[in-house]
Amino acid sequence: MDTSTPPARVDPCLGILTVEGLRRVASWADVTFGARGNHLKARIRLDVPPGLDVERTREWVDPVVGVILRTPGKHKWHGTLVADIGGTDANTDMTWQVFPSVGFDATKLMSVEFGWRFLDTKYRTGAGADAFEYDTLLQGPVAGLAFTF
């Protein structure tokens, strides 16, 4: 992404991976536990004298626990809610996710899913010139196919 005031180029890159195990507690509910890894990399190039080219990378992992709730029974239309929360006292104030979705069975083995995902992370580390703070709410639409085996 280019900016005109000041003339610069900013190239951010974000990767998030959540790995969770689950324990079924009812036909319509699971309890989840796992970890969410974050990879954040940014490069800033300033085009005015004396010029500046800085690149930094931060990576961290947070433990998370949560629930998955589903509409009970077998219906052509169904709803799901995925929610989790986590973080550590060491650096992360909190990370949480809420992901409601609806879907319909297109066939016996495949459903079409639509939802909206909210993922919030607050992370801090370091002090002074080495301080790093990341406080972001990512949200947006999700569409996909689910296969049942």
Summary, kept brief:
By secondary structure, the protein is mainly beta.
What does this molecule look like?
The chain is mostly beta strands. It is 0% helix and 78% strand. It has one domain. Strands 1-2-3-4-5-6-7-8 form an 8-stranded antiparallel sheet, with no helix packed on it. A hairpin with a 4-residue loop joins strand 6 (92-105) and strand 7. The protein starts with a strand and ends with a strand. The model has no long low-confidence stretch (mean pLDDT 90).
Brief descriptors of the model:
149 residues, mainly beta, 8 strands
What is the string of helix and strand elements? EEEEEEEE
Distance between the termini: 43 Å
Provide the β-strand percentage band. over 45%
Overall structural domain count:
1
Give the overall shape.
Answer: elongated
Radius of gyration: 20 Å
